[in-house]
Amino acid sequence: MKNKIQNTPTGEAMIGLVTRAIEIIRAECHNITVENKIAYNGVDEDFVTNGDKKAQAMYISEIHRLFPTYGIIAEEKELAIPCTDADHDIYFTVDPLDGTKAYKRQQSHGVGTMLALVRDGKVIASYIGDANTGEIYGYDESLAEGEAKRVRFGRTSLLKPETDMPLPKQYVLLREAPHTFPANIAEIIMPAKDGGVFKDIEVSGGSIGTFMARLWKGEAGAIILDPGFDTPWDLTPVVGISQKLGFEFYKLGPDGSFKKHQPELVRKVTAKQYYEIIVHKTLVGEMKQWLAVRKKRETVGIDIGDTIVERSGDTRQAFPDALRVIKRLVAERFGNNSHIVSKVNAEQMIRVRKWLDENRFHELTGLPASNVEFCAERHEKAPICEKLGITHFIDDRPEVISHMTSVPHRFLFRPNMDDYERLSPSLKGSWSSRAGKKSNPCFWIRDQEKIVKTKMVRGEIRGPFYFLFIISIYGQFVASD
Length: 481
Prior knowledge:
The chain is of the alpha/beta class and 481 residues long. The chain has 14 helices and 28 strands.
């Protein structure tokens, strides 16, 4: 049967160049020579091989011959040849060998080559070749909106993303290990059965092009990319094919925001400061629905010293009922959205971790061991709480509470009253104390300018930490000695 998927002359030429680059990469893999170079961050070590150099030399020579007025931006030596076309700003981006470290390790995956063509700010053609399988993915102006193609074993077919299967039944692909992600993204990538969005995760490095191809082929529902550097030779072909197929790019903010953006087609190496998720436009609604639910979730943060742990000389022990009540909070209300946030120095951090381990804190309470955050200064708790989306925070120090403008429900537990009086201007309008109990006050929170009071039965209060029992039952903060 005659192949009905046609190419433009430019598309045919680009496929031919990518095919030749694959042949060069394969031929050179049996005798790889390596030169060191500095990574984009100016610190780490990177490499260039004979495969990179020979493939790039072929691309440059052939582009000059076939498209003499077109500009070229290529990876090796960050080559930049200006466009001389009279009618358009038109240029190629060239990544001759994408995944050099995988190539150097003789990996059987994660090695590619990428070529894209930009005209007047729009990617009009892009082709990515998998050096190991020989497959080529891409498009040119011959294809309709929403279409790209796949050349596999000599036959061309349309690329088909998976848009019918819901995200909880699909994988999300990552470039880094999950423990490196901040809490708001860690929630997204946890398995759907545990409250996340996706079925599970897969982590892979190497070529960004062959990595992204898994999304385009329907092997995953989304990809999350971490901060780093955008380069014209990596970004341009990936953005071109992704957007041609209907994928959208969203920035994931530390505050839990999910904001669509148009990736800039950079012409030089540019630092990227944000996480982003790439998901098909037909599945964005699922992401937004999940994020809307998460936004309503309550998240609790608790200090350790003089809040969970009572210090008496050299002795450190939990306040009465503390572990039992935290267990109930985790199980009945906050779940995995329960965090410890503590200000410590290096020596204190060691002691705290040792105390948590020796007292089987995480085992007995269910609060995840990964949900322990440390900082060096008290005011640094505030940005940590903002990053984690903390809605309820308990601390013994008014100074800490005074910084937490992003936390709607803040509570002081057995505070030092001198500190409270000193900082009362910054706390005014948020706190009230029980008259006549200045040495051992009971504080309650103002919720939307209305004082929320909770009735307490004397027999229920078994220890100063038992106010958390009131949180889990009534949804309000009350402390009592």
